[in-house]
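Issue 218. Parser rejects a valid record. Input:
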Amino acid sequence: MDNWDEIRTAFQVARLGTVSGAADVLGVHHATVIRHIDSLEKRLSAKLFQRHARGYTPTEAGRDLLAVAQTTEEQFAHLSSRIKGQGETVAGELVVTSISGVSDLLTPVMVSFQKKFPGVMVRFLTDMRVFRLDYGEAHVAIRAGAGPEEPDNVVQPLVRVRTALYAAKSYVDEHGLPTSDAEFAGHRFVCTDAEATRAPFHRWLRASVQPEQITYAASEPAALEAAVRMGAGIGFVMAFRAAEDPDLIEVLPARPEWESPLRIVTHVDLHRTRKVQAFLAHLKDAAKDWKLCS
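Output the parser choked on:
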């Protein structure tokens, strides 16, 4: 591959999703971007993008190219700074991805990090799918549980989040309040729609009540929490968030086996860069003040 300009162009198109966006970032005409993509696809004898009305979506080959280009771009920037004798700067794009439901914990961390390093542009991504760090989809991922990771990922513990079982006052007024799981009969429950869930508290709930007692199910954590607050049934809420709502009544206190370990995941190729290391240090320091996590 003897034309880095074409690869860099394809990287920006994959990252931004449009020819116009890539042209703006690269400071070239949109026709140049299209020419680079056409030339690169011809050179590789592979289709790198699916063209559609909203823009460009990488194919599997395009995602592979994105992974290589992302790492190469970061390494070139790191090398350039060292050669200039200035040291690597904490600037440019920082992509952080996390599980749903913890944005109120992470957003203040990212905002304060950006104030400390104003040259950083933050992109915070949440989705049901797992973002591929080896494809350059994110610099840092916050994930739950202790599941397997790719061998090139660096995994560090962050905190363990306490979760307890709650009911809204409106539910208790209508259905009463069970004092133990032995009194669950006749009660309604809110639970994840995924029977094969990795959340330990949802697994416990599904094993503790009859299937017909789960009268409200959803895939999005925010929807489950909202349903509990609105009186749809008894369900799990993170303890730090429930403590802020006087309308929630604790049914069962948090148990160690219900705790969700949060972990920080980075890819080995970017883990040692100054930008990622600066953010990890900032995140770990901020997590010390998350009083309602254990």
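Fixed in the parser; the record now loads. The chain has a mean pLDDT of 85.
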